Amino acid sequence: MTLSELVTDWGGFELLIAELNKTGDVTVEHNVVLPGRSGAPRQIDVLIRHKQGLYEHLVVAECKFWNAPVDRATVDSLATTIREVGASRGVIFSSKGFQSGAITQATAENIDLFRVRDLTDTEWGGPGKIVDFFLHVISVAIGPFQMHDILTLPGAEPKSANVNLCLGGDEKSKTPITWPGRQFKTLEEAIENAARDAAKQVYKAVTFKHEDSFNLVLRTRITVNFAPPQPIVAHVNEGVILIPRATLEIGLTTNQSRLIIDRSRNHVFALAVEDCVKNCVTAASRRVDSATTSLSPLTTVAENPDNPSLKNGSILCVWVGGFENFDAFAKIKPGSSKIELAPPPPEGSNP
Fold first, then answer.
1. 146-150, 161-165, 200-204, 345-349 — which is least confidently predicted?
2. Which of 144, 170, 206, 242 could pair with 151 as two cysteines, CB 3.0-4.6 Å apart?
3. Domain endpoint, select from 73, 92, 118
């Protein structure tokens, strides 16, 4: 997709310029010979015909695939060709730009000078032609919850101190509690909140690699300790228990994918056309499913510091709502992690 990949010689450059001018509004011809007013034939690299009403305008384009900027003499020669063939306008396309004298002469002769080059990363828009970032899809699993040193109140002893908790799913149990200094209404709400808080504290937005792959799944088992200044008061089994201390096992899954996107992959070409007389730049692109070229002016847009653009190598984090099953963490020791290759994408998918 770079200019050097698209064009290797002057003939290829002429063909590229011919295609670049096929916007659907004009007729483009390559390597045309027109008779001059003096009788001598004039060879035209690219001839652009634009019909408007009853009139046809001719634009003569010269293509210079040189190793040096175009000089003033070349502009003078084109000015003569324009007069000889009765063209409305002339333009020179160059791969290396123009000397200052050429620009001065072109301004006087009303000739356009265009330098064709690759788009810069800034002109592509952040982070550039190649977008290379990591996606972390993070999910949390809730495991065993164990209460320690529970107490009962005289006259309010429950029929059983066992608490049957149903966590993480759509149909959760509801065990009323009073937790001094906290607003939780049920033990289940408190546990789920603690699981998410612990997961966010443990998670680190850093990339990891294994066996030369970045497409990985990292599972970490975490023990969360509940030790509030005052015991949690839980209403269970028609009684009250005090929970001074408890532990919760949670699992943290980080599913990492590396996403590399070439923004030019759906284009035949995407180039910058720099107007060296008017000092402006136009993007010229052709999609693979199109027969015409799209032209759009390029302007510099200042980055918003409050909403910075994506940087290559950065990590995009997505936290999954709800909770996953804890079974994947059953064989992982508390405080330990396990890394494995991510499953391949489904057949026929387009990552």
1. 345-349
2. 242
3. 118
